[in-house]
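Re: that chain you flagged

S.,

Sorry for the slow reply, it's been a week of failed gels. I finally had a moment to sit down with the sequence you sent. For the record, here it is as I used it:
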Amino acid sequence: MADSEIMVVDERLLKDKIYIVRGTQVMLDFELAEIYGYETRYFNRQVQNNRERFRGDDFMFQLTEEEFENLKCIFFTSSWGGRRKLPYAFTEQGIYMLMTVLKGELAIEQSRTLIRLFKGIFKFSMQTRKLIYTTNAIESVNSAYKKLNRQRRVFPNPTALLKSLYLSTMEITKKWPQSIRNWGSVYSEFCIMYEGRLPD
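Prediction finished late last night. Pasting the structure tokens below so you have them in one place:
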């Protein structure tokens, strides 16, 4: 990647590239490759050459077809198409390990930037970060719609399908107002981080 094409990484861009998969915050290989100025295949080659450092799903794992399709549907993106292989997802630990593997002036500079940004993004506990970034509500709707779409031939007409979509949506949204697990500790953490800005 030429200097003029180097991606400028800020907190907003980084947050947009963090996803929840298998209950864990991850970033995808092709977006990390873009940040580091690599083609995805060369980026993954560097990882494979140091595979022993990424052993275990707590560092990285390959998405299943369903997981990748769910992400594409949730974030309404078509720019992820045309890939021959399913992407790899890197956890927080895996991203820090990447910083020890990728070499070169650009890689070092981008790693410094990521470390600074991660200090802000990962300053919350895991349970609070899951609340901030979770997409479970959207995933549940998407899953229900996909299931109905596969069964659409059993409906006698489009109106019947629309009614079923409506009822499924209403059933799912009933679960959204439920209490958040460990909300007391999560709220206390927010109060500490944002002192004086939240109601008592």
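What I noticed first: The two ends are 50 Å apart (CA to CA).

Talk soon,
D.
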